[in-house]
Amino acid sequence: xxxxxxxxxxxxxxxxxxxxxxxxxxxxxxxxxxxxxxxxxxxxxxxxxxxxxxxxxxxxxxxxxxxxxxxxxxxxxxxxxxxxxxxxxxxxxxxxxxxxxxxxxxxxxxxxxxxxxxxxxxxxxxxxxxxxxxxxxxxxxxxxxxxxxxxxxxxxxxxxxxxxxxxxxxxxxxxxxxxxxxxxxxxxxxxxxxxxxxxxxxxxxxxxxxxxxxxxxxxxxxxxxxxxxxxxxxxxxxxxxxxxxxxxxxxxxxxxxxxxxxxxxxxxxxxxxxxxxxxxxxxxxxxxxxxxxxxxxxxxxxxxxxxxxxxxxxxxx
Length: 317
Description:
Layout: H1 2-32, H2 37-48, H3 51-62, H4 66-91, E1 94-95, H5 98-102, H6 104-121, H7 125-148, H8 174-204, H9 208-220, H10 222-233, H11 237-262, H12 272-292, E2 294-295, H13 297-315
Antiparallel strand pairs: 1-2
């Protein structure tokens, strides 16, 4: 079991490092290809930071570990809009633009609600099609809304390690290589994490859902944490909200679709307690933003305490 724990830790480390390079490399490559910065922000940041959740849950579902797959998505959603959003607000108050309150936040909450309904009924190929269509529609809406804003408003992606400097003008090949290596690392890290976490759960007699909610969910949410902290330090509050709510939107729609398509015949379901906490967390975060148009440090502490208060309930699920 010690070896499995070490392999799980190695998988987490590789997953975090590789996802960092995947997002940065993809963003810079898109910039070189003169793709709209708005599209880069929505697609690369929104989808890119959620790549670990998709791959880990898809691999887990394909291996028959449906509890771990669903627990990862649900746990990541809970973590994003409680602990991570709370950390951002504690670092500094988070003002939220009126347009974000009217559009992106309700869209993300609606995506979580749709995922909750389908995961309670059981994720299969049919529900996966529904979630995939909803994801495509949401992505189209987000890009359209982004294009309707300021044309020069782009989202820069700079990671703590690999993304802190601009690529040299002559090294055009570096960013495709970075992105491909990042994708390969994410795949390998996800495989290591799923296999090792499943073995640890079996050895300890712990439910795979609990492992998915704790170890796997925290590990796959590290890219969102890094992006959130750096965005808040730079004063980009819209990026903080867009990253976390957008991550929940894509986790729910795209991640749920991946689980439904990858699962081999048996519908993947989530426990009512887990799903209820996820829905209540999304509603609480949305209500706090709607009520004050900003998140204060007091709100951040409240969200952090809410996450800690739900952990005993979720661990017994």
